[in-house]
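[09:14] KT: can someone run the structure on this one? pasting the chain below
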Amino acid sequence: MHPPRMLAALLFLPAAVPRAATLDEVLARLRAVRNTVDFTASARLVHVTAAGKRQSYPITVKAHAFPDGLRIFCEVTNPRTRLLLIAPSTGPVVIRTGHPGDAAPEVLPPERWGEGLLGTNFAYEDLIENQSTWRRQTLLPDTTYGARTCVVLRSEPGPADQTRYASVTSWLDHDVYCAVKVEKVVKSSGELKHFIYYGLRENKGVWSASQIECKIEGKSGSSLLIVNRGSAAPHHTRAAFDPALLTRP
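[09:31] RB: done, structure tokens below
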């Protein structure tokens, strides 16, 4: 089973809905989906060098939307690395990181959100996918991507939005509102990151990608997030997202 799409994380996609005709309807649907996130997934984070050498990192992800905001907990088993990402209903995103045995978790400052997780093309911020909440949203004309007709949404941060990106453009399948492609422009460098979603599947009304590829324009190599298995609606409690878990031995 493939898990529903998150908002970083990166993996999960909204359930099938009719085409929204207006920007307000598009954003309302994305908010509604975000507010019902509840999943666990097992995956592999793979970095492929220009020479084709692959480095693979097993990763587990769990997420739940509580009334006061979304929480995502990620753990890489080798090397042991843990992340807790919190996107409150109001207020700024918080990203904490930790390792077994650390004295205390570390709050990751926004200037580090653009760093690659374990040297991959996936930045810490890519695990939270918070762009649909940014101040500036623009609905662009429908277009095609491969065989799919897509609704295109461009998200740009306002002064109060903490992000390392200047803009994020999402191509959403016209019929099921799954992201099939996302492009992100880095503020500091103008670097363009491409995210391609493969193997879109539906299970009990939930659409998901079995693999996401991230490439940086002008650079060789790529990174992959490959979903091994997952389950929707495991009904996580707040205890599953306790910051103390970041440093648990």
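[09:33] KT: thanks! Residues 23 and 139 are 6 Å apart (CA to CA).
[09:34] RB: yep, looked fine to me
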